[in-house]
Amino acid sequence: MSFNDKAAEAVASGDIGVGWLLSDQCEVFWNVGSWEGANPCEILTEWKKSAMTPITIAGLKFTIIGKTPERLVSTNIGGQGHIVGAKCTNYPGYLVCWCPATVGPNIAYSVIQKLADLVKA
User: What disulfide bonds does the UniProt entry report for this chain?
Assistant: First the structure.
């Protein structure tokens, strides 16, 4: 199944609410949903920093649960969902998504990582 097919499935199932496929230079090559005031480049920039400081997006603070160069998992302790990211293995970029609180952060990461693995250059 293609990236687009699996991404549509993840959106339809409620695993992803908003998502962006970003190049390493922060060009948006794919997106789904919208989030007023959210800037995916800010998320990517914060992810790449070595500090484990919270990420604030559109006025919501997300606490970092785990962060490596390949993985970002953060959650809003007020129950406003998660910001999750995975570096693509076959494409020089990143998949960054907001996932609802009904999906656990680690399950959300698993979904996003599987999608990121489907992205082809």
Answer: none
pLDDT, residue 51, reads 87
For residue 103, the enclosing domain spans 3-118
Q: Count up the domains in the chain and report the number.
A: 1
For CA atoms 86, 91, 97, 103, the dihedral sign is negative
CATH number, domain containing residue 69: 3.30.450.30
At 70, give phi and psi (nearest 5°): -105, -10
Query: What is the pLDDT, as a whole number, of residue 28?
Result: 94
Q: What tokens were used for 114? A: 């599987």
Instruction: Find the mean pLDDT for residues 21-43.
Output: 92
Structure confidence at residue 109 (pLDDT) = 96
Q: What pLDDT, on the 0 to 100 scale, is given for residue 42?
A: 92
DSSP state of 107: H
Q: What is the DSSP string of 1-46?
A: --HHHHHHHHHHTTS-SEEEEEETT--EEEEES--TT--HHHHHHH
